[in-house]
């Protein structure tokens, strides 16, 4: 890490760290330890406060739309799957969105796909904690990280607990091939230990405090997100856990009532700029540029999530109209349409279980909707676990237009 980049406005301290390289012996360097977040907002420019206001308006429109829907929970899983794909891609784990949406949760086709699907399970656990009124604790974060890395290459690396060793982030372009990792790194977060654990809990307590009327929720979410990424508490999964905490934080602050917001597609498309802004806060205290960037991201993400939500509701209505125009009259046919919106790929056994039908009735109903063109079998599914999906729903989720 280039220590000369950290100026007097850096919101933290450079602390000495030491180690031993197997070939070169002992070394000394420094890590950056961010100060606790303030009880008042940092100085922000008028243009940044305008961006914050626009983000609040977009989030309010998203939440209002969600609350007007008969059952906004139907849209939770497909939006979560979209978020999972993008947030994992930011960390170098890529799976095509269509594959994520149609994956077999119990038998994913690859380790990478398992890692993406784990994000959905982690988010489900986090949102359940919010709904149950659980406090944000280091233990809860560890549980979420454990879900995220289960069955992946990272399982076993201090799974479920804060990291026990020093880590480094990125690599400087100008670093020499022979440089030690801490020297070549772009950023070196705080050392592991009790102080790191205390700072993470301080952050979680700060997030829970809220400070209404003092710090705007969008500004608070930006500050908390930076702090989590700067602390980098886990051996793996920090980026994904940190971006999930954005939505959790907005839920805790009452800005969102339903966790439909997807933020990672916007950040993924601006990956280098995103990391540059985080680094700019650490090195020179440039909160203004980071908060403005963050607010722009929330505004665009909220607008796009709302557009996709409305598109899914429109598809749902058209598919139900197709059913009404047919000879089918059972309410279960409409329930299956809802199920196909909420679950982008499923088996007959899943329909039997979740809609509480007999297998024969579930199988017959799926077959009838296939004949109507509402559902279709997935070409890749095998005979024994044949899976189905609604093509119109999938087209909306992967960004296409449904006519």
Say what the CATH topology of the largest domain is: Fic-like fold
CATH C-level label of the largest domain: Mainly Alpha
Low-confidence stretches: none
Largest sheet: 3 strands, antiparallel
Please give the order of strands in the largest beta sheet: 3-5-4
Question: Which CATH architecture of the largest domain would you pick?
Answer: Orthogonal Bundle
Mean pLDDT: 88
Shape assignment = globular
Helix content: 55-70%
Approximate strand percentage:
5-15%
**Termini distance?**
52 Å
Layout of strands and helices, then pairs:
Elements: E1 12-21, E2 25-34, H1 46-68, H2 76-90, H3 97-101, H4 111-131, H5 138-149, H6 181-184, H7 194-209, H8 217-231, H9 238-252, H10 264-269, H11 271-284, H12 287-324, H13 331-342, E3 346-347, H14 348-354, H15 359-372, E4 376-377, E5 387-389, H16 391-397
Antiparallel strand pairs: 1-2, 3-5, 4-5
